[in-house]
Design brief:
By secondary structure, the protein is α/β, with parallel strands linked by helices. It is built from five helices and seven strands; from the N terminus they run ββαβαβαβαβαβ. The strands form two sheets. It has a four-stranded mixed β-sheet with strand order 1-5-6-7, covered by helices on one side. Helix 1 runs parallel beside helix 2, helix 3 runs parallel beside helix 4 and helix 4 (124-152) packs parallel to helix 5. The longest helix is centred in the last third of the chain and has 29 residues, at 124-152. It starts with a strand and ends with a strand.
Length: 203
């Protein structure tokens, strides 16, 4: 889900992840925006007065989530996105800016799990799929979010990692590799863009 037109100095979380005046981009892929972390984050943002853009795979039914957000008095839109497709990501971010006028916060939440397998017998297509969604997908989102933030003079990025980004679990090699990559990428962009009024953190 996405967010627009707020003072960047107000747009971040306390330690209890309370959202103030936000707009959130929650790209929920497979663990859809109508459930789980993506939905919970969008609803909390709506309670705080954000305009929420629900971004998820095309074809998924998000009417219940959209109706719950509207019931809280917040504006919301649905934007189709497949984070493993760079053109889909570009279109989703462009459409968000077209609808809202700007993008203040991006919550990059898309991810899929991996089957248990040793790396010695892991099918190449399984590795490619998980890295494509969980890591390359975040790169696509970050690239075009950052381009928009640089145009408008700032923004906030929250990337979803997991405990898999801090430790290894046998049998979850591509998931662990991707989540370590998310943390490394987040650290890098946090340093590189700090002087341009852009903040980046990972959860």
């Amino acid at each position: 889900m996405f967010a627009c037109k707020i003072p960047i100095e107000k747009a971040f979380f306390s330690l209890d992840i309370k959202l103030y005046d936000l707009k959130i981009l929650a790209e929920s892929l497979f663990n859809e925006a109508n459930s789980g972390i993506g939905k919970a984050t969008g609803l909390e943002a709506a309670r705080e007065g954000a305009t929420v853009v629900v971004a998820d795979l095309p074809g998924n039914d998000h009417e219940q989530t959209l109706n719950e957000i509207r019931a809280l008095g917040a504006k919301c839109f649905f934007v189709p996105i497949d984070v493993s497709d760079v053109n889909s990501v570009k279109k989703a971010i462009n459409l968000t800016v077209e609808k809202c006028g700007r993008l203040d916060i991006a919550f990059n939440n898309a991810g899929i799990g991996s089957p248990y397998s040793g790396i010695h017998d892991m099918p190449e297509d399984v590795w490619d799929k998980i890295i494509s969604v969980n890591l390359t997908g975040q790169f696509y989102c970050l690239k075009y979010e950052l381009q928009q933030f640089l145009k408008q003079g700032g923004g906030v990025i929250v990337n979803m990692s997991s405990l898999g980004g801090l430790k290894a679990e046998p049998g979850l090699v591509p998931y662990t590799a991707a989540k370590h990559g998310v943390l490394g990428t987040t650290k890098n962009i946090a340093i590189q863009y700090a002087t341009q009024n852009i903040r980046a953190n990972a959860l």
